[in-house]
Write a structure and sequence with these properties.
heterodimer, A: mainly beta, three-stranded antiparallel β-sheet, 0% helix, B: seven-stranded mixed β-sheet, four-stranded antiparallel β-sheet, 48% strand, globular
Chain lengths: 108, 122
Amino acid sequence: SYVLTQPPSVSVAPGQTARITCGGNNIGSKSVHWYQQKPGQAPVLVVYDDSDRPSGIPERFSGSNSGNTATLTISRVEAGDEADYYCQVWDSSSDRYVFGTGTKVTVL
Amino acid sequence: EVQLVESGGGLVQPGRSLRLSCAASGFTFDDYAMHWVRQAPGKGLEWVSGISWNSGSIGYADSVKGRFTISRDNAKNSLYLQMNSLRAEDTALYYCAKGPHYYGSGEPFDYWGQGTLVTVSS
């Protein structure tokens, strides 16, 4: 089955840039989506189709995808960005949706 | 405004059954695929099952295949998950999520409910 690997945690100072990676075999050939989940809340879509943002999501959130790694970048990090982040793809080989292992972003 | 409201969770003994429901509003329900995603306490997200707009395409995670059954009633704007032979490892918060029109299109889940908690314990 297809596996998406994320670092368990990323720490960043306010105003700096956080980069969260999502590794998977030839992930660059898939569309990657990113969700933000704050404690006690449901996930919220923040980036879809590698690099597009839903309405209402700040431009500070951006994404890229190439080769075996997709990346969510949060620029000018704010305290309110502290959350868990998950990547997701559709794996057509197995007909399954797959979530990454999740990354906890801590704002120092 | 899109709303997804899950219900039906609770405490259940191992081996027993439970049926979850998700009431949808604020969008044309029968135009979209729907999904169940779960999250065990302190753990990550796990896709459980999905169903296309017309129930023509259905998928399950290996961990629940053969035990869980997803269904929908478009006339009632409702999604269901019948869970049989429950195990301790099925303990989780179960979210209902709205997908794209086509199941398996690769598009994201754009709206999520707040979840219903299922606890499997004797």
